[in-house]
Task: structure prediction
Amino acid sequence: AAGVIQSPRHLIKEKRETATLKCYPIPRHDTVYWYQQGPGQDPQFLISFYEKMQSDKGSIPDRFSAQQFSDYHSELNMSSLELGDSALYFCASSLLNTRGAAGELFFGEGSRLTVL
Amino acid sequence: AQKVTQAQTEISVVEKEDVTLDCVYETRDTTYYLFWYKQPPSGELVFLIRRNSFDEQNEISGRYSWNFQKSTSSFNFTITASQVVDSAVYFCAPRMNRDDKIIFGKGTRLHILP
Result:
């Protein structure tokens, strides 16, 4: 079965550079989520999209932005990178049977960002 | 806001022992969903089980079982006859009805010793 695809799997950037992470959800899933997991930490919710509209926002820095495109893939853009942005970034997708009814989130393998 | 507590930071057991991971959550919602995820050393997040607040029946799935007690807001997860491959970080993650996101607990790092 198709899973959530994230690219790139690994990314190394310098401070103040920009990075873009891509996520391709499971086909027919209508909701995409982004999470950030620092070393030894639990995943922290950043932002989510339902049917291409932003549905919820968590602790996402103003330097970060995200969007979901017409083909349902999503991109997380990170600018003015800081050392503290080094983390594992997960994308997840789910299917809401009805608005608010909760299906499980299926996670991609993550994109590991290292900021030097 | 909802809150989830995994009091056990780290657990070590010998292979073939049973182990229970504790989870306590706080919510004012009457309808909510509870999940357990596993994160092995390779880093991916693997969905294990889901429970709806309106279904208190506890179930067993292979070596996994869970005990959902709505009265005490607990959602404990048990691995029977543990194996070395079960070594991972386990996250309890509630999801409230009106929210889309799930909130992860701090996780319990489980070591299964051969």
Chain B has no helices and eleven strands. Chain B has a mean pLDDT of 90. The interface with chain A takes residues 33, 35, 37, 43-47, 50, 91, 95, 97-107 of chain B (CB under 8 Å).
